[in-house]
Design goal:
The protein has helices spanning 42-48, 104-111, 121-130; strands at 22-31, 52-53, 58-63, 75-78, 84-89, 92-97, 116-118, 133-137, 142-150, 162-164. The protein has 170 residues and is an alpha+beta fold. It has one domain (21-164): Immunoglobulin-like, CATH 2.60.40.10. The strands form 3 sheets. Strands 1, 2, 5 and 9 form a 4-stranded mixed beta sheet that branches. Strands 4-3-6-8 form a 4-stranded antiparallel beta sheet, with no helix packed on it. A two-stranded antiparallel ribbon has the order 7-10.
Amino acid sequence: MICACSTQKKLKHPKQNLTKQHLISGKLEQISRYCGGAQPSQQMLDNFKIPKPLKEYTLYLKQGTANDPNASAIDSTTTNDKGEFNFTLPSGEYVIISKTQSSLVNLNAITDQKYIEIYDQKCLEDWFSKGLIQFTVIDSAINDLNLIRNKKCDIPDGIPCLKYTGPLRP
């Protein structure tokens, strides 16, 4: 018996395999403070309190609700001149971290520096674990993922829970 039939595989369109992506955007700003030297005017002191865009700052993204030191970053981005950043992501839970938070080696490189002292270990562990900001993408874009960090004098990367014990500035 001869069959004039053919078997056709039903191919899925390539885009059917893609998970819906959502644009996630925000802004990273920093508040500075007077760190010594000549006494500034009141206007200059007030200006320190106004958040300024944190330019050319690299942010890393991990999946989950906490910064797992054993997990690798799944993406990264760098803020623009206005401190703005964005990611395109499927639904899920995420945490944005700094380079310092990307590994315990990076964190220890700072905490092991001369004149840097940990004054609250639990606070430091919480800061590392929580990352800069945690968020959940459900089924729509997020366009207001904004973060203001406080820059501490002589403490790299705005890390809370540390203090500088070195010589004072003139």
